[in-house]
Amino acid sequence: MWVMNPAITTSRCPAASTSSPHPGEDPLTAALTWAQSHLDGPLGIDQLAAQAHMSRSTFTRMFRARTGTTVHRWLVTQRLDRARHLLESTGLGVDVVAARSGFGTPTRLREHFAAALGTTPTRYRAEFAGRRPDDVAVARPRQ
User: Fold this and answer.
1) Average pLDDT of the chain to the nearest whole number
2) CATH 1.20.810.10: does it fit domain 72-135?
3) What is the pLDDT of residues 90-132, one digit of tens each?
4) Which intervals carry biased composition (Polar residues) (predicted)?
5) CATH of the domain spanning 20-68, picked from 1.10.10.60, 2.60.40.730, 2.60.40.10, 3.30.70.1050
6) How crowded is the C-beta side of 109, counted as CA atoms within 13 Å?
7) pTM for the full model?
């Protein structure tokens, strides 16, 4: 059973806008859902831990057990998924896609695309934009 520790407050991470989880709501799931809706801003372990009302070490341990990966790798994957969606479904410029997906700059977006997908955002858009989901063999990030 999850019990909120009153010693853990958002004062350690003032940028986190936390709210108490609803009764029965898994705090880790709630924090990850919150993070997915805030990918365009800076996110870190301390902010996510505060969102889950956990210490950094407890959050990190539970996160790794649940996802099998690190917070950083999970965030990059989520941001790549957001960027891919925006490239496939909008005509936004690469600079706007980079900002909305949390990479900040087109250069960082291109670096992550090259490392994970072996292509550039522009080439990705040219190949996948406007296709129906069942027509596309989903390109997944490299592990």
Assistant:
1) 83
2) no
3) 999 999 999 999 999 999 999 999 999 999 999 999 999 876 4
4) 7-21
5) 1.10.10.60
6) 28
7) 0.76
